[in-house]
Design brief:
Blueprint: H1 7-18, H2 25-46, H3 49-52, H4 57-69, E1 72-73, H5 74-81, H6 85-97, E2 101-105, E3 113-117, H7 119-139, H8 145-173
């Protein structure tokens, strides 16, 4: 469903609102459009290919990570999928209940859990991924192959910057203090 407000209109409104504030506008536009593009692509894929397979984006990413890397420790799956271990626990339980993954204890460290695709999970990924890739081609169809390569390279550089220097930057911004724990946004329950 197209947005009532175009991207360029939003950028013009932001420019008008922030006109007097010294900002790095090109960088602001990149980050804003990374977010908008990611949200639009995720929504499109969840409402098309993934809905047919009864998968959420996160469940698909977890299956993808295990499909590509093979049997893996939960901590590695969570890291590769970009989710918390707590989120992975819920997703893994759902996928296991559907017969798509199996969980097993680590052979040498009983504290660790290994995840692997079942034959049913492998069959699902072999069926779903080609359709998923067709939609990846659809959402990037306004870009040439060279533009796709340049965009992917530029986004990799953004990721590398955060991975390689983000922690140092956070410490500088927080004056060396440990970040406060994340909050869900919920208000505390009254006693």
């Amino acid at each position: 469903m197209p947005s009532e407000r175009s991207l360029s209109e939003a950028e013009k409104l932001a420019e008008a609102r922030l006109g007097g504030i010294p900002l790095r506008r090109e960088q602001m536009a990149v980050v804003a459009n990374i977010y908008r593009a990611a949200s639009a692509v995720r929504q499109h894929l969840e409402n098309s290919v993934l809905r047919e397979a009864d998968l959420t984006w996160t469940a698909f990413v977890v299956l993808w990570v295990i499909w590509i890397w093979g049997e893996s420790e939960t901590r590695n799956v969570a890291e590769e999928a970009g989710i918390s271990k707590g989120t992975l626990t819920g997703v893994a339980r759902t996928l296991e209940s559907r017969g798509l993954i199996s969980r097993a204890g680590h052979p040498s460290d009983g504290r660790l859990v290994l995840l692997d695709l079942t034959p049913q999970g492998r069959a699902l990924m072999e069926r779903v991924f080609p359709a998923f890739n067709e939609e990846e081609a659809f959402v990037t169809s306004r870009l040439s192959d060279e533009e796709c390569r340049r965009t992917a390279d530029g986004l990799r550089e953004v990721v590398l910057q955060v991975e390689q220097h983000g922690e140092e930057r956070r410490l500088t911004l927080l004056d060396g203090q440990t970040p406060a724990p994340r909050r869900s946004g919920r208000r505390p329950k009254r006693a």
